[in-house]
Amino acid sequence: MLALALTGLLGTSAHSVQAENLLDIYNEAYQRDPVVLQAKANRDRAVAAIDEATAALLPQINLAGGLNYSRINPAGDSSSYNNRSASAGVDLSQAIWRHSSWVNRDIATKTAAQQELVYADSLQQLILRVSQAYFSVLNALDSVTFAKANQAALKRQLDEATRRFHVGLIAETDQLEAQAAYDLASAQVITAENTLINSYEEIRKLIGRQVTELNGLDEARFSPMPVTRTISQIVDNAEQNNLSLQASIISRDIAKDQIVLAQTGHEPTLDLVGSVQVANNNYSIDSAALTDGSSNQGTIGINLTMPIYSGGAVTSQVEQAQHNYVAASEALELAHRTMISDANNNYNNVQAAISSVIAYQQTEKSAQSALEATQAGYEVGTRTISDVLDATQQLYSAKQSLSAARFNYIMSRLQLLYTQGILTLDDIEAINRGLKRDATVAPAMSHANGTSFQPVSNTSAN
Prior knowledge:
462 residues; alpha+beta; 4-stranded antiparallel beta sheet; two-stranded antiparallel sheet; 9 helices; 61% helix; 16% strand; elongated; disordered N terminus; porin activity; efflux transmembrane transporter activity; cell outer membrane
């Protein structure tokens, strides 16, 4: 389970806004996400195909019957010749030896098991996709918040620089620098708002509707925890549980069975066959009956079919299946290497994310202190307006980097669990407990088409 070291209970919110949390989005995506529903349908289809493959091993019984009437009027003869006949029968066949039918059933069973793994993998991927979409929104919300706070701070610096320029305390270049910094900050706000709008669209793609309010991360209770397992233990765990790897193993096994299936084209087949027939015939001239009889017939036997020559088709099919097996084996090797690479990368990403969170926390504190000192120096004339502008931008850049580092940590932990094949709903619930229960509504923003919505800020700019 993902450990975020989030302790304590959340108090009752005084806000009336009912924002949606990560678990809400996941539960809805579980019911409505097309990727998951498609994987589920493929699994169900594969399970149903087992019955079809098994049917070839069971008795085949068919009922047949017919009713015929014919009337003949020969030329030059006033008589009418009539024939009425009725027949019914039952045909039975039972495969005694059809190796291909047994192999087909094995393939169908393994295919169903593979599709079950694919479906389970789609559920774990859903956790990743929902979490990525959710935290992309929160990160974008932070970007908007910090961009606007930076813009507001630079606007105050611009107003102050303009005032000083008009009274002759600073040169025009200082005022122009402040104006340029403010204009850049305004452009950054536009970019951040557009990113936020697009981030909300990713959630809509998952659940089929627009979401405008989300619970943010509770930074006060957020504390990244180190990975307790070694990388060797993680790789060993992934060897046993990685769903993509397990599905590739079954794909290789199916490819091996397909070689055997192709080879059955050279083998004989043996079937038990039997039938029971009942017939009734009635012949008459005009209205006078000539014969009226019935017959019963039963047969039973064994059919043996031995293929002699099929123009090389079976040999070609065997060769194709062998090449397919080689391809499946190489695909398995690729899946194995990818799993090891992902395990190492995600492990390193978690370690780096932890260090980044700690480093950016200190960076934010240092940037805040540096800005305060720079502003004080500017007031007494020891620092320039450029110094103040740079310090302001560095502070909000540090805030944004810290926010991104927190979300990167969460996603890296989830990715590491996914690589091991052990990502579950419990991990979503653990993260969800680390979210705020209230939401702060940010100013409305406009889409390009003129419609607007109210996003939710998940943190303060201060």
